[in-house]
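So, can you check this one?
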Amino acid sequence: MSPGPGAAQAASTQPDIAVVKGAPAAATHACVGMLGGMGRFVKTGQKVVIKPNMSFASAASLGTNTHPEVVAALVRMCRDAGAASVLVLDNPLAPAEQCIARSGIRAACAEFGDIVQAPTAERFYRELDIDDAQQMTTNAFLRDALDADVLIAAPTAKSHSSTGVSLGLKGMMGLIRQRGVMHSRYDLDTAIVDLNTRLRAALTVIDGTYVLSTGGPGGPGKVLQENTVIASADPVAADACAVESFEWYGRRFAARQVSHIRLAHERGLGSMDLAARAVTRVTL
């Protein structure tokens, strides 16, 4: 069956990046809708993993964890698109139970069952080679992330003492067991890109409700209440847009100044060239 006469026109009007100012859930729904709806990314019967930030035992208002309403909105959209299963996963830095509870993400997703998990035991991970790596050629990955049909990155926008920012690309470190080696054995920015050659997000939704512009990743720091959500099918473009949309350390930066974003662009994981991308900004 050929598409209807309006299909090409509708596709052509979809932006590469959607930026919406508004309440967290409404902005998330609007962003994904502008990209064509969750049905563009999730098909009936597929297994989905959503990767937020919930590594710290603190509320979203401190800027360290993804806003629970953003996560719950994504789960609902995946379910409505026909997903067979949806898991919300992160390997936390603080005690797992405290992170799940104090982040508010478990409570926000409670209606969907026991889907919010923070597995730390070795049995939940599988060692795997990273074929396209330049430095980090192996690591232990969360089994559920490897088995997922669709991976959605849902980070909060925050600063980071080692990489400048922590957004979608860096957030993938929460799906592996051996994060320490990325700091001690490899160039961290190169290893982040290596990781993303294996864990490729089909959709990146960046929560900029509370932007931790200094003191990241764990805070305390300066929190900017931006009430913004950014979404793209291109993980590099999403991160680049977040870098250039917000203030970091009291000033503005270009995406190319963040090493792992520049390296991901150079290695073909996406494009940081925002001038060449269609960006639609909406205020609800």
